[in-house]
Write a structure and sequence with these properties.
Distance between the termini of chain A: 107 Å
Number of helices of chain A: 6
Order of helices and strands of chain B: HHHEHEEHEEEEE
Structural class of chain B: alpha+beta
Strand order of the largest sheet of chain A: 1-2-3
Number of domains of chain A: 1
Radius of gyration of chain B: 31 Å
Largest interface: A-B, 45 and 38 residues
Shape of chain B: rod-shaped
Number of helices of chain B: 5
Oligomer: heterodimer
Strand order of the largest sheet of chain B: 1-4-5-6
Largest sheet of chain A: 3 strands, antiparallel
Number of domains of chain B: 1
Number of strands of chain B: 8
Radius of gyration of chain A: 30 Å
Number of strands of chain A: 3
Chain lengths: 172, 258
């Protein structure tokens, strides 16, 4: 059959015969790039999801600190519940009294900022979530991508404010 | 004839077809990739900003609540002094002492009513800044002293005494919100410039600030609200966003944004 077609000397059929392997080679060239790209889209989407979830978790933690008397471990446990749907990363949670200077004061007065923070009773919850990327990307992207989120909220009750003030003015 | 055949060859040849298409596809895919990335970042930023402005509104309402609590405690002191005043008139120096004490408490009450809106504004601004906003300001009025007012009014126990035995009560028609009739509230709006956009800016994300708004109010948590005086027992809580014209005392509209 082939011989018969060749004998007819059809131009298009000749061309097809010549190019039979070319598309495959080109595909082989392109596929790694495409794969990386699609994987990248998936991964970045996932990282964004984790980031958003982190923000929510941190807000929840700050709210718990502001409105309840839960200990830091309990707060950590509760905020960790935001990540049960994902594979477990290495999460680190930090609950602390906010010591950042208030930025609306033009002069850098850490003492005044500290006093305002303490009077305000604002607590900062910081979270670092180490997302684990799939192992087959080893060497291309870091295995663990840390995602950070923080939120500070004012505590409702003025519990221990007397101690704070006494500590600030160093009276007994 | 040869030339014609060459042209025909070029037209009919399929060399490089897949490569060209792939290059175009890759461009489009890269664009999609960046759009996904940027949109995700914007959403995260938006969540963060909403958290920040919620925190700011909550803080402002918290300071209002603290002010109302102070007023409540001082009201109690004033009432006690008022009760002690008339029996003490038998001994005029003692009565005078009680009056002087009452005057001091009145001054304190007035100071709290004047100062706490300012502290509320400063704290709200601080909270917004700390959580990453560029600026924050109350919506209801340009003057934060009106917008974050405690909404209290001075009344006198004894008619001819201006600055003694004063009781503060909620100023209902001016500052009480129509919703739930529970007292003053804080609506705060904030903005922030967007983060940098990677690659082509297709949807126009760049150079447009995000705006966020949140409302919070002091809430009376201990039993029934009393109309003739402020009683201690206030806390702060977030609520649906409300816009209110404080000067006219009219309710302009309410919207829930989130």
């Amino acid at each position: 059959m082939n011989k018969f077609l060749k004998s007819l000397n059809l131009k298009s059929y000749n061309l097809q015969l010549k190019q039979s392997g070319q598309a495959l080679i080109e595909l082989a060239l392109v596929i790694p790039v495409l794969t990386l790209m699609f994987m990248g889209i998936y991964l970045i989407g996932r990282l964004n999801l984790v980031q958003q979830r982190c923000e929510m978790a941190v807000r929840h933690g700050a709210w718990l600190k502001a409105h309840t008397n839960l200990s830091h471990d309990e707060i950590k446990e509760r905020t960790g519940m935001f990540f049960t749907a994902f594979e477990k990363g290495t999460e680190e949670m930090l609950v602390e009294l906010d010591t950042k200077n208030s930025s609306f004061i033009p002069v850098d007065l850490p003492v005044l900022g500290d006093m305002l923070n303490k009077m305000n009773g604002s607590y900062k919850v910081t979270m670092t979530y180490g997302t684990k990327t799939p192992r087959y990307f080893a060497g291309i992207i870091p295995y663990s991508v840390p995602i950070k989120a923080e939120c500070s909220m004012a505590r409702g009750s003025w519990a221990n404010i007397g101690q704070t003030i006494m500590g600030f003015f160093k009276t007994e | 004839m040869e030339q014609k055949s060459k042209v025909l060859d070029l037209l009919s040849s399929r060399k490089g077809q897949v490569l060209v298409f792939t290059a175009l596809m890759l461009l489009v895919l890269a664009m999609f990739f960046l759009v996904t990335f940027n949109t995700g970042r914007m959403v995260a930023q938006r969540i963060k900003m909403q958290n920040a402005i919620d925190s700011a509104a909550q803080t402002a309402a918290l300071w209002q609540a603290r002010g109302l609590n102070f007023e409540g405690h001082l009201n109690f002191i004033q009432e006690s002094l008022f009760l002690a005043y008339f029996p003490a008139l038998v001994d005029p120096p003692a009565a005078e002492k009680i009056r002087q004490a009452s005057i001091k408490v009145s001054m304190l009450q007035e100071k709290i009513a004047n100062m706490f809106p300012g502290i509320a504004m400063a704290s709200a601004f601080m909270a917004a800044k700390k959580n990453g906003l560029d600026a924050a300001w109350p919506v209801n009025d340009k003057d934060f002293r009106k917008a974050l007012s405690l909404g209290v009014k001075k009344t006198k126990k004894i008619a001819f005494m201006e600055n003694a035995f004063t009781i503060y009560k909620l100023d209902s028609p001016k500052y009480w919100s129509p919703q739930e009739r529970n007292g003053p509230f804080a609506t705060i709006f904030g903005f922030k410039k967007k983060e940098e956009v990677f690659g082509l800016d297709i949807i126009g994300l760049k150079n447009r600030p995000f705006f966020v708004v949140a409302s919070a109010r002091p809430r009376f948590e201990k039993g029934q609200l009393k109309k003739d005086k402020v009683v201690a027992g206030w806390g702060a809580c977030l609520m649906p966003v409300r816009v209110f014209n404080g000067e006219r005392g009219q309710f302009m509209g309410k919207q829930v944004y989130h």
